Amino acid sequence: MVGLKIGLDIGTGNVTAAIEGKGIVLSEPAVLALERETGKVLAAGKEALNMTGRCPDAIKLVRPLLSGGISNLENSKLLLRTFIERICKNKIFKPTIAATMPAGLTNLEKRNILACILNAGAGRAVLIEEPLAAALGTGVMLDKPYGTMIVNIGAGTTSVAVVTMGSIAVAKSAKIGGTDMDKKIKTYLKTNRGVAVGKLTAEELKIILGGAEIRDESVVAISKGKDMTDGMPMFFEVTAEEINFAIRECIEEIGKAITEVLEVTPPELVRDITDDGIFLCGGVSGMYGLDKYIGNQTGIKVKTPGRETEIAALGCLRALCEENYLTENGYHFVTLETLGV
What is the pTM of this model? Predict the structure, then answer.
């Protein structure tokens, strides 16, 4: 008898998991609440996220996953262990996990992620490039010499890849995503409006008002923050145009990453992409006008396949379940013993 097969999308903002026969079973913010003195885990995921800006000094919130990688090994292990235990419950056998990683990581960075997953409770683990996992999740054909471009825009990274025959032909990972947009919004409001807002408020404004294109109609929201002059709470009005201006640099960086990949993609694969379009996924992919912006930048139509935040985890699960796919494409499972941890 073997343990569960888990497809795990490890992102800066969210951790998403899928298991064989059930699909998505977990989608939680990558946030951990710890007791400051002892390091004991008090909450993880949504429960911990809701504590943002509201914690007493005795509790600290950490986001141990940085740009799709590992910023703190011990805290990342605690976070993933909490989630793996939720999925596996009291099962005796350790799970086999295929997890995402940004394209272009060093061997040391890959080793750190694998060590974290294995120490968190996995029996065997393998890493798959994030855009390839997303491509597999969209149902891309594994045995056809046909080019597909995937753009996965998450909280910490934007991964761009051209996939053919179930493998990556060209890829780039840029450290830009939704979290950077939140920071830009906070800075803009502080500098130009004299208003201080927290991370959750900035993220809410990004979701409600953020866009890559100017809307035809004027859109305004009322939000709450702190007046920088006297430190008192206040209501303020902000427009979509202001939020668009605040995040414009991030949008341009995403567009630049896509065009750079297209520039080095072989002509025949570009032809396929032009015929089939660019597939957009990840937590930021549904932003107003982003598909139109990328289409204007590249001259290629853009598609969103649906379930944008889930397809990378589903792709990892597909890789585990497709017999011989991983080994035939050069991916190898490791254990704590083989990793030498």
Answer: 0.84
pLDDT band at 39 (very low <50, low <70, confident <90, very high): confident
The whole-number pLDDT of residue 1 equals 40
Residue 295 has pLDDT above 50, yes or no: yes
In this structure, what CATH number is given to the domain that contains residue 299? 3.30.420.40
Q: Is residue 183 part of a domain?
A: no
Q: Do the Cβ atoms of 176 and 250 come closer than 8 Å? A: yes
**What type of residue is 110?**
K
Residue 69 pLDDT level (bands cut at 50, 70, 90): low
In angstroms, rounded to a whole number, what is the distance separating the alpha carbons of residues 321 and 98? 10
Task: Report the alpha-carbon angle 71-72-73, nearest 5.
Answer: 120
The dihedral of CA 230, 233, 237, 241: what is its sign?
Answer: positive
DSSP line for 215-247: -SS--EEEEEEEETTT--EEEEEEEHHHHHHHH
Arithmetic mean of pLDDT, 51-61: 86
Give the burial class of 76: count Cβ atoms within 10 A of its Cβ; 0-12 exposed, 13-18 middle, 19 or more buried.
buried
3-class secondary structure, 200: helix
Whether the Cβ atoms of residue 300 and residue 150 lie closer than 8 Å to each other: no
Which of 142 and 275 is assigned the larger pLDDT? 275
Domain that holds residue 70: 5-133+311-339
Q: How far apart are CA 20 and CA 267, in angstroms?
A: 37
Q: What are phi and psi of 140, to 5 degrees?
A: -60, 145
